Amino acid sequence: MSLTFRNYSVMDRLKHLLDQIDHRGYKAYKQIQGDYQFPDFLLRIDHVQGDPFADPSRCRIFINSDTIKLDQGLYANRIRCVALEDYLGRSFATAIQQHVKGRRGSGKSGEMEIVSYGQQVLERNAVLVREGAVELRIQLALPADGRSVNAQQAKVMLFDELVNVVRAILHSLQDDSDSLQRHVDSVEDQQFLRKQLASKGLLAFVADGAILPRVSGIDDRPLDRAVPFCAPDSLSVELDRLHAEPLRGLGIAKGITLIVGGGYHGKSTLLHAIERGVYDHIPGDGREGVVTDPGAFKIRAEDGRAITGVDISPFINNLPQGKDTRRFSTQNASGSTSQAANIIEALASGAKTLLIDEDTSATNFMIRDERMQALVAKDKEPITPLVQRIQDLYKNNGISVVLVMGGSGDYFGVADAVIMMDNYIPKDVTNTAKALAQAAVPQKVAKMDIQAHIRVPRPRCLSAELHQGKDKIQTFGTRTLRYGRQEVELSRVEQLVDAAQLRAIGYLIRHFGEHFSQQKVDLVEGLAMALDEVESHGLDQITPFIVGTLAMPRIQELVAVVNRMRGLELNDLP
Ligand code: ADP
Ligand code: MG
Known about the structure:
Helix content: 25-40%
Number of strands: 29
Strand content: 15-25%
Bound molecules: adenosine-5'-diphosphate, magnesium ion
CATH topology of the largest domain: Rossmann fold
CATH architecture of the largest domain: 3-Layer(aba) Sandwich
Distance between the termini: 72 Å
Structural class: alpha+beta
Number of domains: 3
Largest sheet: 6 strands, antiparallel
Shape: globular
């Protein structure tokens, strides 16, 4: 009883403080920074915003294990714990929509936010579960009238809305514990499916019944009335799940796989789903049975991007004006040079599977047909197209490729499997394609071992400093990272799926610049060390103050962002 009594008295202190600062200048809100015990939770106001138009105030909510009563099995291992945290964050977001009115005065007054959640389940720092206790990190825009404190509205926000939001979560956990259990089990199953790929010689698996198409190019939810996926018998495999029956589906084996078929028959949609299969998805997404080699990387043409010191000579040689392609740099890459650099950089970042779509490729990088070979002499053509290197990539480097190619049969001869999409259903046409390829004369080129060499960044170029020791790391969706004075354009890095990942990447680059770049290590090796540190010690390592807006990126996207920085400078080779 005494505990309850104390709790209420501390809540009263916050009410009292708010009354005291009512109608005063907005800065007076600073006085409410601190801890307040509510009946169901502890509210910690970490940082109060400077004015009603600034970034909202950073707060945390701590719910102890006796109050929230989570079953221990829900956080029995890291994977389940991440899924549980994801579920709680989504519940909070839903409860905000139901219980928070928003707009309670000028600027952002009255808005309550947790980080936004997409279709993927990512490791984040928005919600942390430790030994059954829960920490939620949220943003509150404290209400203002013009630029003065509006204590009445603040009280409604904190003592009605916030209290109701937490209560709603506690109730929903009681009433619908099945949905939480399903969420956590599903994520663990996806990880379990992905783990079986390597031992079965597969790079991807697409389950029967999966829903691959999305609502639209800007809406990642599943399309209504889509044709469910169904694998052809000859390419079907079965994978086990921990919490459900085994799944049958299409197994894409290591090697070179071609996806062909008429226009609009679902080729790119299948490849997109495979791209996203490096991540886990929420139940109901339609892609819970689609899993991919976790290091798989989408390769595309990206003309206009910057390239710094990348050896693209396996693909590009003899450029006009004798430009060196063994350490190729440009501020304005062409389609083919950008696609070549994307491949070499992906190899450096440890990718063993490359995903390529004709829709987003440079034609001259992909193929060169016989008539063009006859017209333009070999020594006038700088490009050795991928079709002539793709078998070396697999045989010498163990790099598999999944390639969508509906417009040319040039890859029939080099493919290990050919899948035809026919009205959104895959057919195995490997034998027919192989027979057709036999008639064609193979194009001969010298064999080559394709290697990415070491690149050591100069420390100075990775500073986020703007002026007088002030950093700037700012993101715009997943499209742009503003890093100090640089703006990095990322809309064509397609497997960067969440703004929270890009935010973390910004801080990771700074962390790398501050702690590792003096050691003169290779760029990828150094970034991997920074990422390892975060993996073992958490995302809070890399931010100057506690935020809840970060999500773990893959090493591939982290490296991809640095590679696109226009100010990246490398040390000379020893
Ligand atoms: P392609 O690359 O073969 O030209 P896309 O993959 O771009 O074709 O698909 C064409 C259209 O068909 C897209 O609008 C996509 O959303 C839709 N689509 C793809 N797969 C399915 C499916 N299984 N059911 C219904 N519509 C689909
Ligand atoms: Mg397409």
